[in-house]
Every structure is written in C-alpha cells, then in structure tokens.
Specification:
With 597 residues, the chain is of the alpha+beta class. The protein is built from 19 helices and 26 strands. The N terminus is likely disordered.
Length: 597
C-alpha cells in the first residue's frame, strides 16, 4: 500500500479525556459515559428524530466545550472573539458582535480575509423566527469580457494578480447588516480593529507559519509589510498596518460610501488598472449587496439553511439529501464503508455544482432540479460500494464544464465567525480573500490586500460561470444554520476550507446528530478532504485498518499528521431549547476560539 504522509510542524497533541455524551432528539446535552472511549455504544430510538448513538472512534478532546446562558461568540482568532464577547456584554446584539469580530479579523488574519475580500451571512431573528441571508460578494468589472482576457494573453483567469480581482464586497456587507439589524454605533464597533491595525497585535506561531508558506505571491508592498527582511515577523512581535488603520477609520466614520464612492475606491481602481486588471472606479460605485432567501433542506430532524448560488450551498443540501439513501448510522463512524460513501457522494454533488453553479442574476441555475429529492435519490444510487470513481459526470446538461479548473488545491483562506445574543438572535457569517494573501496585491496607499475571488469566473465558452461584466464569481463560501422543526434556532456552523467546506460540515453534522458527539468533539474528530479524481487527504487519527481498506477501494490517500489547516477550522454555536444553554466550539486546526457568558 502506497500512502503519502504529510506532517504539520505545528501540530498539537490532545490533552484532555472526553466525556461521552448523548444528544436527545433536540440535542439536549446529557452525561452518558465516563472517561473511557472504549465503552460500547448504546442505541436509542427517538420518535420523529434520528437515532443517536455514542461513538468510540474519535480522539480525546483537545479543548473543552464552552457553555453560557446569555450569549456566545466564536471566530478564527482569540482577539476577535474577545471583541465580540465585549460587545454582547455591553448590550449589543449578535450582528453588532459580528461586525466587531469581522473588523478585527480583517487585521489579525490579513492573509485570509479583509476589506479587500467578500462575505456572506445568515441571520436568525430571535423574536420573530424570521431568517434571511446577505450576499456581500462583489462582481467583475464592466470591462471584464472574454475578449479582455484574450487581449491580456491568457486562456484562463489567473489565480493571482490583477486579473483575478473582482470588486470586494465585505465592507458593504458590514454596513448593510448593521443598517438592518445592528444597534450599536458603527464607529465604536470598528474601534478594536482600528486599534490593532494602528498600534499592532502580537504575531502568533500560526500566523508566522502562514506568512512563510503563503507569502510568495505577494507584491513588493506586501512583502515589505508581511515578510520584512525576507521572512515572517518573529513570533510575539507586534505587527502594524497603519495605512489599513486609516482606511478602517475612514470607513468607521463615513460608512461604505467612503470605500465605494470615495478616495479609497479611486485609489484601488487606479492601482488595479495600473496592474492590468479590469476594475474601474465606476465598478466600485455600482456595487451593491443583495438580501436573499436562504435555501432550505430537511435532514436528521432539522431544517438546514445555506446560501443560494452564486455559492456552493446547493451542494451542501444535495449531499444531505443523497445521504438519506444510505445507512449512515449502521455504517459506523469513520469506518471505511462510511468514509467511502461520503467521498463518493461528494463527487456526485460536485459534478453538478461545477456544471451549474453561477451568478443567478446573469445565468440560469436550475436549483430546483439540482435539489429534487427523486433526482438525488437516483444520483445516490450511483455510488459503487466496492470501487472509488475516478471521474463523475453531472446528472444532466449537454456539456461537461468545471468550476475547479485551477492547477492548485484550494486551501480556503477564509474566516468563519458566529454569534448568538441574549435575545436569541443568531448570525452565521463568513468572509474571505479566497487564496492565501488573495491576489497577492497589497495597495500601500490604503493598506488593503485585494482578494482573488474573480479567478473563479471561467473562460469556458457557454459555461453559466463564464466571465461577463457585472457578474459575481462562483463562490465556495458556505455558512450554515440549522433550526428545529418548530422553527426555533438550533445551531450555527461554518468553516474555512474552500472545496472542503461542504465535506467538513457534513461530517461534523453526522458526528453530532448521528454519532452523539458534543459540538467540540464533533469538530475535533478526524476528517477527510476529497480533491480531484481519486485523491483524498485524511487525518492520521483514522485507524490504519480503515486507511488500508480505503486504499483497497481505489482511493489515493494523503495522510496528514497533527492538526493542520487543510481540513478547515470549523466553529459552531449550539442552542439547547430545554435548558437555554449555549454551547460553543472552535477548531484547534487553526486559531479559532469560542467564548460565552
């Protein structure tokens, strides 16, 4: 058996022994076993809900579940999480906390997200139960025609540089969310971010490692800031971006108009134009966010809500619907049969996703057909229990296209953040530069690093995602929310990871709702990530016997040691409706932290 092993040089060892827990039909956390992870699973049938069992095949907990009664926050960095908790404790609501955390993350995780990137959010109103979603992704410039790229001498959109830059949408998303749901002063919410950008924040081990590994694509201005003297700043030193602080301060005082219809927009447009990109000042002026209705799908006694296209949320619901046709529980947690089934279902869902998902304002996206239960039941029957499929075609459509035609594995340089407040409001939010350091272009005048989300538009003639003026790119960003059958809020969940987002979220949902894990246990349990063809990355905490069995089915495994970022950095806030307790969980694979009170 030939298996590649990849080591994470900053891996961590689990330090605590878990308490085995069972979730009831409404996921009330109940103590069911003691310290041994070898205790036998006990099955329990619950009327009108999935059967839930204890599980024995996951590693001891690295971190504890975080619980509180009034509010909870989780984000991809402890400084951001701290800012969000402070907002809740000072009387702000979930949206206020999200804006404060999003601002801080734009400073302290600059390679993964920022005011040069995009965002999406799902909002639950604790009083009315109303749920809505915000598409805060940007669009291609008015000059972005296939002919523009042909004249630039490329036959596909590059993964970095000015040709990969679309209008950043995150800043508009912050203010639009605040105008609709926020209660605190917008300027005060961005104050922590401004302070960290102006006066500095301590460089962590994880951040230094990321800078070293991902900084090669940076322009000179970016290297001067993030790779001084040719390498990452030393761990524990302060990192400042005073130009970004000034831009954030302008946005805090003047709102999104300062970004899209002011000096910032003019400077960014001139910078991109000089580098050969298609964005102009009017492209910023014409940008708008869009309030949308989230897609819904019922699974395991819950209703799941995801973003509609231009995101891959449709693939998330398709995976869940197809999984209904397989005996997930009886296959057993992280057995070869279980993992093989999920990997093969992913290939089916992604074949349809890559063929059809695009900007619905400028392309026909057959969402209803893609999510039709009968159609997905037929698709799920294509899984061969005895052999991994090297390639899978979409279920319908005359031509085979792909949204994944880049010569790189998308690491998913993204941050997820979530908040629940004392009034029961909840927000599931995600924002991103797409690749590490995005386009690699940092504008020294504004301190803004521009994303490369425009690289996910296509130059394939006739594809729904073919580049066009004003078109939003296909997006991997996929925040998730779940509600109970009575409409009450159940949990938020999300993760960085690009193509792995939908895969990781399905595994975590199963860990919790099928195999009885607590939120933290569900996030920490070993995961896989299926890439193109037969390639599968998988964590080394899966047993050798299972790895060998997967290899015998044809999967080409890359076994990854330690706690590494390629499997995302999932976070969650779960609400127990019986006790009112909020349980938050954060992934040790990145820098995520949760707090509650």
């Amino acid at each position: 058996m030939s298996i590649t092993i990849t080591a994470d040089r900053f891996s961590q060892n689990p330090i605590s022994t878990p308490l085995m827990r069972r979730f009831t039909s409404r996921l009330a956390l109940t103590f069911v076993a003691a310290l041994s992870v070898a205790c036998a699973p006990e099955q329990q049938a619950v009327e009108n809900s999935p059967t839930v069992v204890s599980t024995t095949s996951y590693a001891p907990q690295n971190r504890p579940d975080v619980r509180g009664m009034k509010g909870a926050v989780s984000s991809d960095h402890p400084l951001a999480t701290q800012a969000g908790l402070r907002v809740l404790q000072e009387g702000g609501n979930a949206t206020d906390a999200i804006i404060a955390m999003a601002g801080v993350l734009a400073v302290v995780r600059p390679h993964m997200n920022g005011i040069g990137g995009d965002a999406f959010g799902i909002f639950y109103d604790g009083e009315s139960g109303e749920i809505t979603a915000l598409n805060a992704s940007g669009r291609a410039g008015a000059a972005a025609t296939p002919e523009f790229f042909m004249a630039a001498g490329v036959d596909r959109i590059p993964g970095s540089g000015a040709l990969s830059v679309s209008v950043p949408g995150a800043v508009a998303g912050w203010e639009d969310a605040h105008e609709r749901f926020g209660t605190m002063d917008f300027q005060s919410l961005l104050a922590p971010a401004i302070d960290y950008a102006k006066n500095g924040f301590p460089v962590s081990t994880r951040l230094a490692m990321d800078f070293e590994e991902q900084g090669r694509s940076l322009n000179q201005a970016g290297r001067n800031l993030y790779l001084p003297n040719g390498s990452a700043p030393e761990v524990g030193t302060l990192l400042k971006n005073e130009a970004l602080a000034a831009s954030l301060d302008t946005i805090a005082r003047e709102g999104k108009a300062a970004y899209y219809d002011g000096a910032i927009a003019r400077q960014l447009a001139a910078f991109v134009t000089e580098q050969g990109g298609h964005l102009r000042a009017n492209d910023f002026v014409n940008h708008t966010s869009t309030w949308v209705e989230p897609l819904r799908g019922d699974y395991l006694g819950h209703t799941f809500l995801v973003m509609p296209p231009n995101t891959q949320g449709v693939a998330q619901l398709a995976l869940m619907e197809m999984a209904k046709s397989h005996p997930i529980e009886s296959l057993g947690h992280n057995t070869a049969e279980y993992l093989h089934t999920l990997i093969e279902l992913k290939k089916l869902a992604f074949a349809d996703r890559d063929r059809w998902v695009a900007d619905p304002e400028l392309a026909a996206v057959p969402v209803n057909r893609l999510l039709d239960a009968d159609y997905l039941r037929e698709r799920s029957a294509l899984v061969d229990a005895n052999q991994a499929a090297e390639s899978v075609e979409p279920g319908f459509g005359d031509e085979i296209f792909s949204n994944s035609d880049k010569d790189r594995e998308d690491a998913g340089d993204t941050v997820y953040l979530t908040a629940v407040d004392q009034w029961g409001n909840a927000v599931s939010w995600i924002q991103s530069n797409f690749a590490g350091f995005g386009s690699g272009l940092l504008d020294s005048e504004t301190g803004i690093l521009l994303h490369n989300r425009g690289s996910l538009l296509s130059l394939q003639s006739g594809h729904p995602n073919e580049v066009a003026p004003g078109k939003r790119p296909y997006h991997t960003l996929s925040p998730l929310m779940a509600i109970y059958p009575d409409g009450g809020f159940a949990f938020t969940m999300g993760t960085p990871g690009g193509d792995s987002q939908t895969q990781s979220l399905l595994q975590i949902v199963h860990n919790m709702l099928v195999f009885g894990m607590t939120p933290q246990q569900a996030i920490e349990a070993p995961r896989f990530r299926s890439s193109g063809g037969l390639s599968v990355a998988i964590e080394d905490r899966v047993t050798p016997e299972v790895l060998s069995a997967l290899e015998s089915l044809g999967h080409r495994l890359r076994i990854v040691e330690g706690w590494t970022a390629i499997f995302g950095g999932a976070q969650m806030i779960f609400h127990d409706p019986e006790s009112g307790v909020l349980t938050a969980a954060a992934d040790p694979r990145r820098e995520a932290y949760s707090l509650a009170y």
